[in-house]
Amino acid sequence: MHLSSSVLRFLVAESEPPEAREDRRASVGRSSGETYRETLRSLAPGAECHRVKPADAGAALPPGESLAGYDGVFLTGSPLHLYTDTPETRRTVAFMRAVFASGTPSFGSCAGLQVATVAAGGTVRANRRGFEAAFARRITPTGEGAGHPLLAGRPAAYDAPSIHTDAVETLPDGAVLLASNRVTAVQAAEIRFDGGVFWGVQYHPELALDEVAGALRRQANGLIEAELAGSRAEVEAYADQVDALHRAPGRRDLAWRLGLDDQVIDASKRLTELRNFIDALDGTRDIVRR
């Protein structure tokens, strides 16, 4: 269901550093923020979507805009390591604290969840269970998650696009754990801090399968070091299958080889969390009053 009562105003916060941004564009034709903007416009036709790059020096909102003037803020994935003190991580965390203080509801995927965690007083670390690559498997809602609107429509266990080496270590005080799996303890959470509310996932509902394939190719060396693949050729072969399924989602042979079902292959189901967040806004910020 699309929201149509008024024009929604979204701000996409892209925390990819410039080099990573250009690598991604060279790989799949768009930065993480550009992917998010395109996805949001498909879910909320007519929405006004601005983009900001909080990791960049001198980054600023569009002229005349304020965080409180948006209906929702969306935090993209990023290669930043939130446990490392750098100008980029400091700027990104400071931006997220400003989002919380503004009261504007926010959503984030992958590093977006990690940024919100650190901004609200939690911690992030390298995932002790290693690389979660291509797809997070058997994500399971907690008791709270099963009844939370973020995960409405998800089954008792599901897969999702995912590629990350870092993970939330401790959630901030008062946060609610919504989903986990064997590799990553915090797969989804709600965080309330300083008057704001954030819903986030460690996986990537915004990514189509061609972008999953691109991420695998960009991170091939890391996959080999993690012993998930023996060579770049093996990574390329797997990525080729993911790409092929993107082009032909009805191919049952590819779905079987990759171990995927409609929770990943069907775009309407893959986008569940983003759609639920937008629907929860309902033009009145009801999400804040839960």
UniProtKB/TrEMBL annotation:
One GO MF term, please?
hydrolase activity
Task: Print the keywords alphabetically.
Answer: Hydrolase
Residue numbers spanned by region Disordered: 15-35
Pfam families listed in its UniProt record: GATase
Q: Which SUPFAM superfamilies match?
A: Class I glutamine amidotransferase-like
Q: Which residues form the Glutamine amidotransferase domain?
A: 67-210
Name the Gene3D superfamilies for this protein. Answer: 3.40.50.880
What protein name applies here? Gamma-glutamyl-L-1-hydroxyisopropylamide hydrolase
Which source organism does the UniProt entry give?
Answer: Methylobacterium symbioticum
Gene designation: ipuF
